[in-house]
Each structure stands twice: as C-alpha cells, then as structure tokens.
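Category: protein sequence paired with discrete backbone structure
Discipline: computational structural biology
Format: plain text, a pair of labelled lines
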Amino acid sequence: MRIQVFILAFAFFTSSNIGSSQEFMPSDEVLSDKGETVDIQSYVSTGNPKIVSLWATWCGPCRMELNALKKVYSRWSEDYGVEIVAISVDIPLMVGRARKMFEVNEWDFTFMHDTDQDLMEKLGAQGLPYSMLVDGSGKIQSVQLGYFPNYEKQLEKKIKKL
C-alpha cells in the first residue's frame, strides 16, 4: 500500500510541466547513431515537432516510457509529423549496449548519445527519463520528469496544440 501511495505521489508531482531551465533547446554536441557529431539545437529546429527523451539503459521508467511511445509513434509521425529523439546519457562505454537495447526493443526512434552528459546538465535535468516536447523552432513547449502510465495521452494533447 505504501508503495502505491508513493507511486501516485511521484506521478502527481512529476506529471506537470515542471519547466526547463531553458526556453529553447541549448546548443550541445551529441553523437548520432552513426557516431557523427550533431548540434542538438540545430537538429530540433528543423520545422517539425520533436519529442526529445533523455534516457539510460539502467533506468526502468525510461524503458517503460520508450515502450509506450513505440506504440503510438507511427500514428503520431503520420498525424502530426512528430519525430522522437531518444538520447542515451549512459557512459561512453555503454553506447553499444544502448544501441543493442534499441534493436532488441525495436524502438524506431532517432537514436543519439550524450557522451559527456553536457546536454543533461545544460537542461538542468535532475532525473530520468527527462522528456521534452520541442516545437519546430526549437522552443521547449513542455517538460516531463519521470514516467507514469498513460503519459502519452497527455503528451498527445500538447502535440495537438502545436
């Protein structure tokens, strides 16, 4: 019973737009799935909305979030032009494991890696998963810390408003 109360309290306190320390996605170099350096600010400012999720292989709620987003991604991509960008914040030695997890789970998102966790620091992220809805100009529209069941339903409402 105590665990259920804790989970409900955690979901309540993390489900709001907690805000980001940034109004726009900050400039930071991350690695693409091909190992190329990408400026994430330029990448998310390409005209279509993005869901950017910072995650790690060891994070259970991160896997739950990515699995939930997998179920709606095809429809959201078609209906709203949304791209999901999953950025692993695992240590550099774990990049291979993160890629393997992507393949095994058949997550069809854009995979990137924040090898030095600078992006996480610039965003002021205090935990994982840390997900942002970013509009086509690179402005962060909402932030979500943690995952709770049916989070994607609230996120879709926000996407529709863009």
Observations:
- The chain has one domain: 2-161.
- Residues 60-80 form the longest helix (21 residues).
- Residues 1-20 have pLDDT under 50 and may be disordered.
- DSSP finds six helices and seven strands in the chain.
